[in-house]
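pinging the channel bc i need a second pair of eyes. not urgent but kinda urgent?? the chain im working w is below, pasted from the shared doc
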Amino acid sequence: MSETIQILRKLWTGEPTDHSGKFFHFKGISMEPKPFQKPCPPIWIAGGTAVGKAEGVYSVKAEQVLKRIARLGDGWIARAVTTADKISDDYKRIKEYARQYGRDPEKIVFAHLNFVHITDEHDAHMESARQAFSKISNLPFEDIKREYIVGPKQVVTQRIDELMKLGIQHLIVWPTGPDYKTIEFLADEIMPRYK
């Protein structure tokens, strides 16, 4: 991954490029058209510390990923399958590593992607969430409640507020299906809070 990022940045200049690395070797390669963004499009890298079942399923090498983000990333998308505490810890480590690499950590964009599902206030067992997540995730429901943004509107708002206090610049929300009620709630009640 690290070598690929370095190659892309070379190729995006549009000039014929040579490369000799661990995985790739070439001479005189160029890429057209040149990107609009100068010197090249920003590269956002996703990853970080996983928790619960996801920690074992994904065999996460978080430290390696966090160092790559600090060294090569223009932005970081904190993983969805985690907690606010882990995101906060990862962000502190990225900033520390960025300083060690001679980079300004404030220039690395901080984003987070997470599933959002709004349940009815009277749905104590969260049946709608159980059904929605059963179609898209194999995590235990206890992990889903802890790691994703799930619950009645008040709980969803609190969870988003908690995440935004970490310094997130872009929150990418992913409804669990074609759920216009959730989309309208996010557009009408959540987005205006952070303009």
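so The chain has a mean pLDDT of 90. and DSSP finds eight helices and seven strands in the chain. — does that match what u expected or am i reading it wrong
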